[in-house]
Every structure is written in C-alpha cells, then in structure tokens.
Amino acid sequence: MASSAAAQDFAYAWTPAGTLTPTPAAPDFLMFAGAGDLYEIESSRLVLETTRNPEIRRFAEIMVEHHTKTSQVAAAAARRAGLTPPTPTLDAPKTAMLNALRLYGGVERDRLYLTQQLMAHKEALGLMKTYAETGDTPQLKAAAAATIGIVQNHLTMVERLAR
Question: Which distant-in-sequence residues (6+ apart) come within 8 Å of 4 by Cβ?
Fold first, then answer.
C-alpha cells in the first residue's frame, strides 16, 4: 500500500475534460478520495460553527452526511476488493484550506467556504470520473461511478449558492 506521503507526491495532471492523467492506482485513489471526503466533512463542520445563512447551513449539513456515506462506500468497496482502506488524512492543500477557513468567521468564512467547495467538488468530480472510467479495481470503479452523481449534485448546489 502506498504511504500517504507517496499519495501527496503523486504527479498527475488535469485534462481538458476535467479528469486526471494518469489514473491513480487503487491505494492512491483511496487516499485521494478519503482526503476529499475528510476535507468536506471538516470544512462543513467549521462553517456550521459560525454561519447564520440557512442555505449554507443546510448545504454544510448535507456535506457532512453525504461525504461520511461516500467514505463508508469507498471503504466497503476496498474491503470487497481485498484492500485495507487507509484512514482518511488530509493532504497539504486541504490542510491549508481548512487553516484558511479557521482565520475567518461569519460571512467571510461563508464566502471562503463556498469558493473552496467549488474547487473541491470539481477536483472530486474529476477524480471519480477518472477512476470510474479507467481505474484498476472493479469494486472501486463501481464505487466511484456511484459517487459521480452525488458530487455533481453537490457542485450544482454550491454553484447556485456562490452566485
């Protein structure tokens, strides 16, 4: 299994279609997906501490609920494939994003949260599409494919909120 440092150093590039090249191996996919879900959960908990906006509050609650579930789905798929799912950890960019959120409160935090959510969901969508199409583990490909619609829905929601 690749170490978390190896996953953070994974050299990939975004294609014009919004997917990754090369496709990450199963252990790296699990680390990237886990980091994304953990960021979504932790950033949403942070915004729930200070937001007074009911729409952002509901979105953040949905993020905690849905990304907890997508983490569970990915871990179960990994186990079915005979892999040990890694404990989700934040990579350096996601840690920096959370630290930035901690610097603000109220409306400022809300705005930064929405900006970060746009970026994070575009990244997650690219990761899921890439792995669903060209991943190396059928069980994880199926989990990624099942997650695409969820992430796309989140992206649509956050685009509406960010207007």
Answer: 31, 86, 89, 91
pLDDT digits (tens, 9 = 90+) for 109-150: 999 999 999 999 999 999 999 999 999 999 999 999 999 999
Contact 76, 150 (CB under 8 A): no
Dihedral angle, C-alpha 46, 155, 38, 89, nearest 10 ° = -120
The position carrying tokens 């919004």 is 18
For the segment 68-95, the average pLDDT, to the nearest whole number, is 96
Supply 121's token pair: 């969901």
User: How far apart, in Å, are the Cα atoms of 19 and each of 33, 65, 118?
Assistant: 14, 25, 16
Residues of 21-46 as b/e, b for ≥16 C-beta within 10 angstroms? eebbbbbbbbbbbbbbbbbbbbbbeb
Whole-model pTM: value is 0.89
Q: Which structural domains are found in the chain, ordered by start? A: 24-83+90-162 (1.20.1260.10)
